[in-house]
Amino acid sequence: MKIYYTDHFELPLPEGHRFPMVKYRQLRQHVVRSDCHLQDSLIVPPAATDEQLLSCHTERYVNAVCDGTLSNREIRRIGFPWSPQMVERSRRSTGATLAASRAAMTDGIAVNLAGGTHHAMRDAGEGYCVFNDAAVTIRTLQRERLIQSACVIDLDVHQGNGTAEILADDRTAFTLSLHGAKNFPIRKSPSDLDVNLDAGTTDEEYITVLCEALQQIDKSGPFDLAIYLAGADPFEHDRLGRLSLTKNGLAERDRTVMQWCLARNLPLAIAMAGGYAPDVNDIVAIHGTTVQLASM
């Protein structure tokens, strides 16, 4: 299996910043140390090009990000200070999901150890998301005529408003978001299927709802590609999640999605998305399990 990583493009964040950037480096180290991945290939992805980014984002926004001319308000909305590293990492993270999708179309499944930047909209970034990797990937592969249709299975705890906005009213792209009802973002763009979860939702409740949602996706298929955002933030101890999934429950979630795709011979690209547990080792363990299950 091909695994794409971008952790050597870490951002120079202020001390005490809420976003756990260190998780990416530790996740790659976890994968390298694991005997489960001895046959897997770890690859630095190419950066997304301007042409690929412009398939989903406005020229004004792409230029402002790349030139460092975002307003202070726009930078605060993104949550990262601007830097050349921020631009390069955002391009690479998007490029990694695109590369993983290309690999999945050959190998069946592939992983981006970052990505899942689902709050990035056409003309704005938000919530630690600069460019929308899933939307850019789908548009790029469609333009290259490698796929006709795709689905996004967004199981980050926060609603995928950016992906929903970019892919709105597009019958070739189905967007599912399973998320906490009373959580960020306050203003949600409607996905093709939004499933609002109550605070404290447990493993059993979550898996039941997920299976029902996957059955709904079937009605809009078949698809040529699935992109799965495997957020670690539904975890019961996540600072921003408010749900009550255990690590075992999250592993069962991953298995459910992977088995659904396998049964349909549907290529699957996986991105890690969010995770904000106080102990970064918990985040790494959850993401690490996702990658391990994909490699089995």
Tally of separate helices: 10
User: What helical percentage do the residues reach?
Assistant: 40-55%
Mean pLDDT: 96
> What are the low-pLDDT stretches, counting only 5+ consecutive residues below 50?
none
Give the CA-based shape. globular
Taken in chain order, the helices and strands follow as EHEHHHHEHEHEEHEHEH
Give the structural class.
Answer: alpha/beta
Q: What is the makeup of the main sheet?
A: 8 strands, parallel
Query: Could you tell me how far the N terminus lies from the C terminus, measured between alpha carbons in angstroms?
Result: 9 Å
Written overview of the protein:
This protein has about 300 residues and is α/β, with parallel strands linked by helices. The protein is built from ten helices and eight strands. The chain has helices at about 20-35, 50-55, 60-65, 70-80, 85-105, 135-145, 160-165, 205-220, 245-265, 280-295; strands at about 1-5, 40-45, 110, 150-155, 175-180, 195, 225-230, 270. Helix 7 links the parallel strand 4 and strand 5 (about 175-180). Helix 5 packs across helix 6 and helix 9 runs parallel beside helix 10 (about 280-295). The longest helix is centred in the N-terminal third of the chain and has 24 residues, at about 85-105. The model has no long low-confidence stretch (mean pLDDT about 95).
